[in-house]
Write a structure and sequence with these properties.
- This protein has 160 residues and is an alpha+beta fold.
- The protein has one domain: 2-Layer Sandwich (Muramoyl-pentapeptide Carboxypeptidase, domain 2), CATH 3.30.1380.
- It contains 5 helices and 4 strands.
- The protein is globular and about 75 Å long.
Length: 160
């Protein structure tokens, strides 16, 4: 009997981490239940400061184009590039998401996203902006679909 050897690496597979969305949402629910809404904000803030530090550094050095590239890469990796629209002008990156791949996956799996999802957007990207020396605002978030509109702006004046 012959033996067949398959040489395959993780990098040969498409990057999908869909169940991460469910586990992170369960974490948000747990934190809110035990530590309240302020605990959720602090939890997300700590995560963002650790996870987004390299991206914030690139954005501070290279400008908002690095941030736009990040969103395009992550939505492509999530197989949701059609849900993302970005607009980069001088000093402003506008992002419109028609549906969130994480929210869609959670619902397809029968998981109801927690109320903390809106905080995940506001606090997560707010912390990223702060690390990169930018201003951030979220003008719309739809809890049903995860659709959102937000923007990052270069600061006119330094924060004290």
């Amino acid at each position: 009997m012959s033996k067949r050897i398959v040489d395959r690496r993780a990098s040969d597979n498409p990057y999908l981490h869909r169940d991460f969305h469910i586990s992170s949402d369960l974490s948000l629910s747990y934190v809110e239940e035990h530590f309240g809404k302020q605990g959720v904000k602090e939890f997300i803030q700590q995560y963002a400061e650790a996870y987004y530090k390299p991206l914030a550094g690139r954005t501070a050095e290279q400008g908002l184009g690095a941030l736009e590239e990040y969103f395009q890469e992550i939505y492509t990796a999530e197989e949701a590039s059609e849900a993302l629209e970005t607009s980069l002008t001088v000093g402003v990156l506008q992002v419109a998401v028609s549906w969130c791949p994480g929210v869609r996956h959670m619902k397809q799996k029968g998981h109801t996203p927690s109320a903390g999802q809106v905080e995940a957007v506001r606090t997560l990207y707010g912390a990223l902006a702060e690390l990169a020396g930018l201003d951030f605002s979220c003008s719309r978030y739809d809890a049903e679909t995860g659709a959102a509109e937000f923007m990052f702006c270069e600061r006119k004046e330094p924060r004290l």
